[in-house]
Design a protein that fits this description.
Layout: H1 2-17, H2 20-45, E1 48-51, H3 66-75, E2 80-89, H4 90-97, E3 109-111, E4 133-135, H5 138-145, H6 171-178, H7 186-198, H8 203-214, H9 220-223, E5 225-227, E6 230-232, H10 245-258, H11 264-278, H12 287-291, H13 311-325, E7 334-341
Parallel strand pairs: 2-7
Antiparallel strand pairs: 1-2, 3-4, 5-6
Helix pairs in contact: 6-7, 7-11, 8-13
């Protein structure tokens, strides 16, 4: 007991002998170290974008990307590629995106038809939206989300940065693509291109989104829908949610009425601004990122534009067609390539149909 007390007394004596300035300096140093380590931890989880220069991609950590990017770069010298480090674990992302009986509504749906049967769908057979959709399988989600399946000429426009490109986007190009559709006409084309330019948004993307959402001939929401004694327009299907056709129409019409979208041109102009504010300005500046919300600027997985798992490819095909038709496909475009942590070496395979 005497030894312990003596040791304790010695410690107390040492503490008493510490000068106030030394003690304050030690405390400040400890606080600085804590702050430095906190910054390091935060920075290690922060997402970042870096222009690919042909050498700055770790092939061991991100297998299968480099060769695919280099091939496209050789074929299209004007194109640039941005590596987007999501800092997200691949398996964790797939788990969040996949069907779960605990979720009220799946994040990803596929059409309930023979083309997307077999390994494309899963769940308990429950139908969603207007009854024509079922939950997408994990294998289907992996296939559609794996960026390596998109780094080729047929799929890369799902990763195109959706900014306005002066020499590539023209009213004539829009008129050509929308001929015979609900978007035909000079006034509509000018409304699209003027609002797109104002919002620094690719107008060909706008056309592809509208044709994907409404079809060539349009729907009641794009042709004009009677609501509260007024004809309203909602071509982007904003707030078009519900489990029946009537509920979907009423909710979308109610929103359009509240915004006084009593002409197609006004609905287009303000709808484009909505797209820009709600998605592009939030970092979701590709078709891919608008479908799969893996951007940490907001809450992950919450701000997706659509549930349709096939939509990014459908829209990208329309977008690519416009650029090919206007002979501007080799303009100075940038493509944003998502990188995930712990990606499997083998590229995700396409699901088999029945």
């Amino acid at each position: 007991m005497r030894r312990i007390r003596k040791k304790q007394n010695g410690i107390l004596t040492n503490i008493k002998n510490i000068q106030p300035k030394t003690l304050i300096g030690s405390i400040v140093l400890i606080i600085l170290l804590i702050l430095i380590f906190s910054i390091i931890i935060v920075q290690s989880s922060m997402q970042k974008a870096i222009i690919y220069d042909g050498e700055n991609l770790n092939e061991a950590r991100y297998p299968g990307y480099k060769e695919l990017i280099d091939k496209l770069k050789d074929e299209h010298p004007n194109w640039t590629f941005t590596l987007y480090y999501t800092k997200l674990n691949w398996n964790a992302v797939i788990k969040h995106e996949s069907y779960s009986s605990m979720k009220k509504t799946p994040l990803n749906l596929v059409p309930d038809n023979d083309s997307y049967s077999g390994e494309w769908a899963e769940g308990d057979g429950k139908k969603y939206d207007n009854g024509n959709w079922v939950a997408a399988s994990q294998k289907a989600i992996e296939y559609k989300m794996d960026p390596r399946n998109l780094i080729n000429e047929n799929n890369i426009f799902q990763l195109k940065e959706l900014t306005y490109t002066e020499e590539a986007n023209t009213a004539e190009g829009i008129i050509s693509k929308t001929d015979g559709s609900f978007l035909e006409g000079k006034d509509v084309a000018e409304a699209i291109i003027n609002s797109s330019k104002k919002n620094n948004l690719d107008p060909y993307f706008v056309v592809s989104r509208l044709l994907q959402e409404q079809g060539k001939k349009g729907t009641k929401l794009s042709q004009g829908y009677e609501y509260n004694g007024k004809t309203v327009y909602n071509p982007f299907n904003i707030s078009a949610s519900g489990n029946s056709t009537s509920a979907i129409l009423e909710n979308a019409a109610k929103y359009a009425y509240s915004k006084e979208w009593f002409s197609l041109e006004k609905a287009l102009e303000e709808g484009i601004s909505f797209l820009n504010t709600r998605y592009v300005n939030e970092g979701q500046n590709t078709l891919y990122f608008q479908k799969f919300d893996v951007i940490k600027k907001g809450e992950l997985y919450k701000n997706q534009y659509m549930q349709n798992l096939i939509a990014p490819l459908s829209e990208a095909n329309i977008l690519l067609d416009q650029y090919e038709d206007s002979k501007t496909v080799d303009s100075e475009f940038n493509f944003i390539i998502p990188l995930y942590e712990n990606m499997p070496e083998k590229i995700s395979e396409k699901p088999k149909e029945e």
